[in-house]
Amino acid sequence: MLVATRLATFDLRRYLVGALLWMPVHVVPLGGGLVLQQLFDQLSGHRPASLELSLWLCAAFVGVEIVRGIMIIIAWTYGVYWWLAAATLLRANVLRSVFTARGPAASRLPHSSGESVARMRDDVADAVDFTDESVSLMGTTLFAAAALAIMALIDPVITLVLVVPMIVIAVLSRALRQVIGRLHRRARVLGAAVTAYIGELFGGVLAIKTAGAEEAALERLREHNRRRRDAAVKDRLATDLLDAATGTTIELSIGLVLLLAAPAMRGGTFTVGDLALFTSYIGWLTALPRSIGTILYRLPQAAVATERLTRLMAPHETADDLSRNNGVWLHRDPPPPAAVRLVDADRLEVLEARGLTVRYGGGLHDVDLRLERGTFTVVTGAVGAGKTTLVRALLGLLPLDSGTISWNGVPIDDPGTFLVPGRAAYAGQVPRLFSETLRENLLLGRPATDAEIARALELAAFESDLADMPDGLDTMVGPRGVRLSGGQVQRATAARALVRTPELLVLDDLSSALDVETERVLWERIASRGPETVLVVSHRQAALERADHVIVLDRGRVAGRGPLGELLENCPEMRRLWSAERIREAEEGVGE
Question: Domain coordinates of the chain in residue numbers?
Fold first, then answer.
């Protein structure tokens, strides 16, 4: 209920205007019933007959219906804006929590991206629809109160009969509330599983094709769909049974009204016009128990939706945070995003990590790291040695089991929210590009001049590639950058980090897809003209030869540290890695 109240009041003007526009839609039929009463009383002789008055009454009835139709169009058109605004508020708060919550980034999204998208789509709609139904409930309640008052003045007994279905539906809806909530939760969970699996299929097309697992993958998708379909049918069946019970009860009450009206009409206490009015109002009175039934079965659905959306947010956040108005810009353009403003204390002199221990993946065990300003440090090691785990833990992308990180001697409580552009920038081992232009992939919303972009591309050894693209920075790179080569994707990712002019640049296995000459140019430019402090994960000779300091990892522990020459003399693991790399690069040279 808190979420519903917040959604109704965060843009109160639109909500109230929409409600006021819907009110005439529900209230106007009161006038139509009164007009029909007068008209049929004239036609049946209960009132003095007048052709001219009858025509005017017919015209009035038509006018009432036209007004109601126009009001429906206006109210519906206006109400869409509030609905979309409320949905935007919920989605914005979930995204805000995901992107800004303290703690490791790996734990910020507890579900797959596909399931999260399903929740943002379906559960948001459920939560907003519950609040939206309150407008209909207010309108139908207002109509029912006025209509029942008018009908009670005509015949209180018959009017009482019409109240019975409302009570029955309320009791029935209350009894089915838990059942509907349970079935709806299962339907949403299985529906999200289908969306998540489809996302995984698209992401793993190459793996599926190379393994010849197309039929198995499709069969798994069919199984997911069968389970989702069964759950959705049960969910829909429960709500439809409630609707059917509502309709049946209403139809029975209409039959009772007709049975009670017949003797009253014979006795002269109930006119044809009264019957026309009752018949007219009965159709609209059915909207109240239906609205009550809808609200009662949407309530558990909204509760399920709120719970599922809240689980996407940070652990300490609740439904209160989900529905709070944190500044959603609906009526004008938002202000430009505030960049991290660096002061003298942010200027990196030394970044130090002590006793870093991570049990995630291969793990780290008591690793120390010291990065001084102006140094080019390379972390190397065999596959699975913990290189990527080290840099991701350092940047707050993985949770630390123990250890401390300090910036210029000041401990960092939450590296994930402190080591951000422009203090630090990161190009990961798996490049991530979006199906947008090259410019948008480099900036990701960050303002930058053409000169800044050009400098970043030059440092990333990408200027020649850009010159060969007819559309330049406006080139569409395709989903995940499929229109670029592997080396271009890696260097575009490096340029994205470099355009943020960070104090600390972190690059993870950046040059694995580059040819020897491009790799040499890349490391030469970054080492000589790039950011003051660079941390690189690499086993490539071109990077190691330019390193001021090398850290050798072996199964999550530091096997050696120091200049490359010293390590080649006194670190067996470094000598082994160096020899293996020389053999591999020699084989690549022969292959070329």
Answer: 2-318, 350-591
